[in-house]
Amino acid sequence: MSEIPGFTPEQGYILDSVAERAARRVLDDLKKSGGCPFDCDDVSDLKSSVYGNGHDGLKTRVTRLESEMQDVVWTKRASVAAALSAAGALLVSLWR
User: Fold this and answer.
1) Is the dihedral of CA 33, 34, 40, 42 positive or negative?
2) Nearest 5°: CA angle at 54, between 53 and 58?
3) Residues 15-48: pLDDT tens digits?
């Protein structure tokens, strides 16, 4: 067990023991209930938002947005490079 900052080793041990006992009780209660610990309609709404359930979920949307953002960044870089090249060509043509 690692030490908890601000607690003595004895206090950390007691805190860890109490937390572990509480977690075991919660898990035992969930196993005994045999069902969804929350209102299952809420959980299904959450799953449909995150995973999409056949539609666009957050995973699909975030992946698509990342791809589109990369396209925007590269388009911006290409535009800046083209503008700098045009400015350089103009300067060279005026120099001669």
Assistant:
1) positive
2) 65
3) 999 999 999 998 888 778 776 666 677 777 777 7
